[in-house]
Amino acid sequence: MAFNVTIRQSGKQFQVEADEPVLTAALRQGIGLPYGCKNGACGSCKGQLVNGSIEQRSHSSSALSNDEKTRGMALFCCATAQSDLEIDIREIAGVGDMQVKKLPCRVNALERVAHDVIVLKLQLPANERLQYLAGQYIEFILKDGTRRSYSMASAPHHEGPLELHIRHMPGGVFTDHVFGAMKERDILRFEGPLGTFFLREDADKPIVLLASGTGFAPIKAIIEHARFKNITRPMTLYWGGRRRGDLYLASLAEQWAREVPGFKFVPVLSEPDPADNWQGRTGFVHRAVIEDLPDLSGYQVYACGAPVMVEAAQRDFTAHHGLPANEFYADSFTSAADLANAV
User: Fold this and answer.
1) What do you get for the CA distance between the two ends of the chain, in Å?
2) For residue 228, what is the enclosing H or E element?
3) What confidence tens digit (pLDDT) does each residue in 81-116 have?
4) Quick one: pLDDT at residue 204?
5) Are 236 and 209 in contact (CB under 8 A)?
6) Residue 301 phi/psi, 5° resolution?
7) Average pLDDT for 134-145
8) Averaged pLDDT of the chain
9) Based on C-alpha coordinates, what's the Rg of the chain?
10) 107 close to 183: Cβ distance less than 8 angstroms
């Protein structure tokens, strides 16, 4: 049995099968809805249920609170229809133009750039090219069918291998393998491109790029894409870590600041080690943005990294510092542990 879903703002309609997540049905029919993790952990696909009945399946309480549920909010990646629906959620143009593929790839290089970060480069088959938007991610398909998501750090115009930044999560099945047994020429499988985190090129507002840890990866792709396209909007990168080593490609960001007109780089450490001899900014990285830009009403913000950082930035920027809610774009790096806490 299928139900009809109508998007309130545009009037677009699509069908969702019984027991099929609303988001899955929309993407299957070329309707671009916002999403990130697709499993109830990040909150990117949150929208309003205007009419109809759904079953809201397991999700992280930080992605959808009980108060939001009582106000009719829903996570459409893990909501199934029980009747025809009318929903209110912003649509994303451009994502539907990217063909999602399942591809094999070969490990081209493994470069350890920090004690817990490896730059992994993947070579696609000679007759394949992955078209994607800077900021999107792929999902590795592991042997047991489980998946692990990583953003592409290389820009779409780049002709070489795909570049990913992998942080070691001790006890994590995939990252333990990357940091232990993986070697060059190993074969992996992935699906992509996925996600709705990418630069909105039709705007002219100055841009705040906000990253924590390996959240720098898709931000790097966006910056390199903007340079390639000669996008001249002012851009400021705030990159946060606990210690100096967490900013594992700071020299590259410093190079951009020297070479790219209108580009600024603000590194921020929350717990600098005395050995770091750190003379720069300290504290939470999103607070550094607020200190510099107390009025964000004329900006776009692109945030990527730990969920706690992304959530705090979205809350504070929109509630207290004038950022329009529809100008905050985010990719929250959820882990298997985050998913284990779903309710």
Assistant:
1) 27
2) helix 216-228
3) 999 999 999 887 766 667 899 999 999 999 999 999
4) 94
5) yes
6) -120, 130
7) 95
8) 92
9) 20
10) yes
